[in-house]
Amino acid sequence: MSIYIRSPHSPLCDAIASSAHILTGSAGDYDPLLDLIGDARFVLLGEASHGTHEFYRERARITQRLIVEKGFTAVAVEADWPDAHRVNRYVRGLSSDANSEQALIGFKRFPTWMWRNTDVVSFVDWLRSYNDALLSRMPAVGFYGLDLYSLFTSIDEVLHYLDGVDPEAARRARARYACFDHFGDDSQRYGYAAGFGLSASCENAVVAQLRDLTARAADYVRRDGSEPADTLFYVEQNARLIVNAEQYYRTMFSGRVSSWNLRDRHMAETLDALAQHLSRAIGKPAKIVVWEHNSHVGDARATEVGGEGEWTVGQLARERYGADAVLIGLTTYQGTVTAASDWDAPAERKRVLPALEDSYEALLHHTGISRFMLPLRGKNSVTQALFDRRLERAIGVIYRPDTERQSHYFYAHLPQQFDAVLHFDKTQAVKPLERTSHWETGEAPETFPVGV
């Protein structure tokens, strides 16, 4: 049982507690959340870090209910399109992978633990079992990636497809994509050289290839064998990804806002394209669950980075779909997290410091409730009080507690950013499938060196 700790925030904490729905781990935990979602077609489930067990587990619980009870037919995640496609084929019974771990083997790019972890394996197992039990006339639930980092993998996928349906078009595509050959599959090296004028841009070549592929789409559907529409959609999306990835890497050294916006626009456009494709396939508007970081799921207009010109998938979804898009943030106060100390560094199990006192996370902590859902729609005393600007924490794949305030906090207006928040006061690190001895050992305990 949680112990209530009074704090300087007590009146507001009491008001939050009175509006909160306590999560007990029971089957009915998310009944109020499903009521809030209603008939919405897009449910965007966030996370305050890329390495927290509770975030993955609870997103899976919610997603399972959305699939079973509300007819959602796709899960779209913050992952590369071709890597997720391998999982998609597995959960739909279309691949030769023997199990979920094997289906996830495509996630080789840092950070591997983000999708190669025990919680994702459990969810993919469930999804495969659910699809296997469906009646033949019912659409299987798919698993899709929204991100654009897979420049060279996507090139390989386009070429492989064209080799099978149009060898002459494959020859032209190889000639166009040869623009990248001397960068050795190093996307950032290309971006630096092209962005600073040290090498010619590949922009015209990749755009021409996308136009060529799109123009011949109808012919390829006639030539292809099994699953022609799904296969061609997968390949066309790889070609679109190549165009957007080329632009992303070319601009990534010119400023954070421009590259961030290119990436989130790509993810939002991929979500739109996926919704249209699935809607045509099932003959009615498709419903999609999105798993991404809070910093993508939340509405940027409610944050200080939005004031600097950034936009997010959540904002773009609200602008396009209105109330059909529901944005849900997940937060924590303290615990452990799987993260790295630097880019491409090993995964570590790190201790998450208690949230800063002037943050939303600290405010939610001071309610004394360990796990709860807080609805944020509509005007009431709680949402009006929470609208006051406060700090909010974001831990990505890197966590630097020594520069906690500078590296992991930004100002936000929570009720405008999300439709609801799920708070888990103390959380644990997600377990990578490949755990090193360093991860197993973890950091020194909080009492070190006094408590040793």
Description:
- By secondary structure, the chain is α/β, with parallel strands linked by helices.
- The protein folds into two domains: 10-148 and 255-441, EreA/ChaN-like  fold (3-Layer(aba) Sandwich), CATH 3.40.1660.10; 149-254.
- The protein is 47% helix and 14% strand.
- It has helices spanning 10-19, 31-37, 53-70, 81-91, 100-103, 118-132, 151-165, 167-177, 187-195, 203-215, 217-223, 228-251, 256-282, 294-297, 304-307, 313-321, 360-365, 381-386, 404-408, 414-417, 437-441; strands at residues 21-22, 42-45, 74-80, 142-147, 288-291, 325-339, 348-352, 371-375, 390-393, 409-412, 420-427.
- Strands 1, 2, 3, 4, 5, 6, 7, 8 and 11 form a nine-stranded mixed β-sheet that branches. It has a two-stranded antiparallel sheet with strand order 9-10.
- It is globular and about 70 Å long.
- 47% of the residues are buried.
- Residues 1-6 and 447-452 have low confidence and may be disordered.
